[in-house]
Amino acid sequence: xxxxxLCAGAGAKDWHGPRETRPMRTKGKRQAQKIGAFIGRERLxxxxxxxDGSLRAVSSVQKALKAAGRTARGxxxxxxxxxxxxxxxxxxxxxxxxxxxGTVRKLLAGLPADPPLSAGRAGDIGPGTLLRLTFEPxxxxxxxxxxxGALPDLFPYPALDGADRRERPAxxxxxxxxIPFRKSPGGTEILIVGSSSGRHWTVPKGIVEPxxxxxxxxxxxxxxxxxxxxxxxxxPIGSYAYGKxxxxxxxxxxxxxxxxxxxxxxxxERHRRRRWVSPDxxxxxxxxxxxxxxxxxx
Length: 298
Prior knowledge:
Layout: E1 2-7, H1 26-41, E2 48-51, H2 55-67, E3 75-77, H3 79-82, E4 94-99, H4 101-109, E5 129-136, E6 139-147, E7 155-157, E8 164-166, E9 174-184, E10 187-194, E11 201-202, E12 205-207, H5 214-226, E13 228-232, E14 238-244, E15 247-261, E16 274-277, H6 279-285, H7 289-295
Parallel strand pairs: 1-4, 2-3, 2-4, 9-15
Antiparallel strand pairs: 1-5, 5-6, 7-8, 9-10, 9-12, 10-11, 10-16, 13-15, 14-15
Helix pairs in contact: 1-2, 6-7
């Protein structure tokens, strides 16, 4: 069987909390995504994924899987891995272990390899490093070491084997949004929300997660960003494009009839503002020209 070991991406600087909850910084996110693009391009997606449970390890493998064109599901936590020992592995297939640098170094030191993995090509492993190994009880051999820093800074587009190159993984440029509405005695009302920066009004919108349909991904964004649930119409009401990350993002837009408005801790991004307005007022307040044209169609 093949065993892959990924060292979690670089963590935030000046962190004084527990190492298990230390978040990744931007450099660490890019490291994980570059490794993910490599995994997808080389068709090395794992059959089983285990992490040590740390925030950086989980975030690293999530970003890597998405960059590889895979859904970030099926990730398990291993107590054994968290202690620096090899967990029980399947007899066949490819397993990916993801852990903090110190945990990975401890893991490598305990593997029966000749030469030892703590030296040579596998030595001095740091954030964003991937090791590919053949693994059998009592026998381990290093196939390949991949360092994120040695991989291209730009990502292939529109697919993992695409000839074009962009600043972010290909899936970033495929997005979906909902225009939430409700019927009132005065007519149709549109729910707009404050942007993440709080500087303008928008509607729930986000990147389409690999493995999800645009409508399913938009439903998740609606709950997280606007704190709402509802019925999404089967067919989109339109689409628009805008520039970001050095290229063009294409956004598919759905209408959502709001059935429930969440309050308090049930609303993940409750720092945002919410406001019910008429379609004409929404068209005036929204910044994106493409949205201005669509809200009046709800």
